[in-house]
Amino acid sequence: MQSNYDVIVIGGGPAGCSAAMFIARCKWKVLIIDMDNSKGYLSGLGNISCFPGFPESLKGRELLERMRKQAELEGVKFQKDKVSAIAADNAPIKIMTDNNGEFTSSAVVVATGAASRSNYLHGEKELLGKGVSHDALADAPSIAKRITAVIGRNKRSAEATLFLSRFAEKVHFVIPSSKLDVSDHLLDKLQNNKAVEMHFSTSLKRINGSDHVKSINILSSGQEKELDVAGVFTYVHDYQPTTAFLEKIVDLSESGSVKVDQNMATSIEGIFACGDALCGRPQLPAISAAQGVLTGVNIDGYLSKK
Fold first, then answer.
1. What are the structural domains of the chain?
2. In a 3-state reduction of DSSP, which class is residue 50?
3. At CA 50, angle to CA 261 and CA 276, rounded to 5?
4. pLDDT of 1
């Protein structure tokens, strides 16, 4: 494989594929370097029902395969590898990888997402996309008229519980604390919601199931019991943006998210960013894809001027 490209996209999720596809359509040579898209956030979604152009529900992995195929049809090349460093002091920009040496390009797109996690609850990783989710907006339809559980103690988990109560027959809100870190107004809404049962000072012991979530075991006041649920939405551990290799290269927020301007450009000329790496947590795939296209439009303009 050649080592010189017009644009190198780091990350092969919805943002990266969308950016690469658009840039390639504009007749630029594009390479996507991706560690393993099967481990990305989109691949773990079991039900996507709000992606434009797909009235039927589909799994995240299936959507990702279609996006990758579309990019390949436009001429995008793929390289499975991990980017270890970037040198942007002089043109062209140099991309160093763990296994395939050095690549160069006139522009770079950072679309590495925010799926960096190593701390999973028991059964969470094994059943991700099979009833376990971290995104109520994306996966709420999958538990319609069924019983589900939310695990967490923060504002995001509380808001997810209220949102899921619009769909589910019942929501077990498992709170590993004696109180919630939310406003009194939000707490009142939860307590007055007949579809929500709140379990304070309760920990999740495990998520049960083989092909799909069947139940959870919780521990409260020294007593363990099993609850039948069709889905589990976990908000105990936060995701982190996959941006460690960018430290001291581009401006990052305190949480590690990439800062960009209205053109999706970072603080370093020629380096752009889009997708979950901007907000530090997973967002709707349609939003990431739209950001990717917008980044592609701006990069085409950037390269044309150069």
1. 4-116+239-305 (3.50.50.60), 132-234 (3.50.50.60)
2. coil
3. 30
4. 65
